[in-house]
Amino acid sequence: MAQTVTEERVTRGRGVERLVNGQPTTDGAGVKINRVLTQTLQRRLDPFLMLDAFGSDKPGDYIAGFPEHPHRGFETITYMLTGSMRHKDSGGNEGLITDGGVQWMTAGRGVAHSEMPEQTDGLMEGFQLWLNLPSSDKMMEPWYRDIPAGDIPRFTTGSGAVVQVIAGTTHGVAGAVERAGTEPLYLDVTLPANAAFDLQLPAGHNAFIYPYRGHLVVDEACVPEARMAILANDPEADGVRIVAPKESRFIVVAGRPLNEPIAQYGPFVMNTQAEIMQAMDDYRAGRFAA
């Protein structure tokens, strides 16, 4: 049962810098996705590298899944709204994320894994977010945790907002995962019609909002369904005020930028091209986690 908390008050809210359309694409073995945060936005939304939204009631759009593939240098956060995803990796780990659950994987120095969908009544919907690691952590030991829906902290506000705290701390509620380096905040919010949600954010954090049900108004700007709103970096702002003209559901993501060089080649994200070449050599030679 969600606890009720005292609402935060934002005195000066961030505005919407711009709206971003996702790019329909395929990944893995032909899974259809909407790539919302692309490589061109990595510097602007540092420390976040990618956001994929996926959702279909057609098994052919996703059932082939993501056969074994490598990662190094960052973290993946897979949030399943509906459906299940089975994970296996080169370290011998295996887990199943079910409806409403999250898998948090730290690739670190290297892991090869597979992610294979399992249907719930033919439906599959969720998000995968890539979070960069600081240079000091890129070669850390791989780690992952499956977080069932019932283990994700949640709260309600007096205005009726229902908030799930996947990562970070807000309104005095600590999320399922904390990260000191990037300080990510990852919320899933359900907001009733004509209700408002005030969220305090550190001034230096990059942040975005993505409504996947309904639409929102942020600082008088309309944010349509399935569009990402990048929030302006205003040093005078203490957060963001979000209003739902009709019942809506959305994710809010924010984090402390690393301000480090980003070198990416597919599933490898390091700081230099030399490190990318080393990652490729290590993978070919079987030197990833095993």
From TrEMBL:
SUPFAM superfamilies: RmlC-like cupins (SSF51182). Keywords: Iron, Metal-binding. One of its GO terms (molecular function) is metal ion binding. InterPro entries: Pirin (IPR012093), Pirin_C_dom (IPR008778), Pirin_N_dom (IPR003829), RmlC-like_jellyroll (IPR014710), RmlC_Cupin_sf (IPR011051). Its cofactor is Fe cation. It comes from the Bacteria. The keyword Metal-binding applies. Fe cation binds at residues 69, 71, 113, 115. Binds 1 Fe cation per subunit. CDD domains: cupin_pirin_C, cupin_pirin_N. Gene3D superfamilies: Jelly Rolls. Pfam families: Pirin, Pirin_C. The keyword Iron applies. Belongs to the pirin family. This is Pirin family protein. It comes from Massilia polaris.
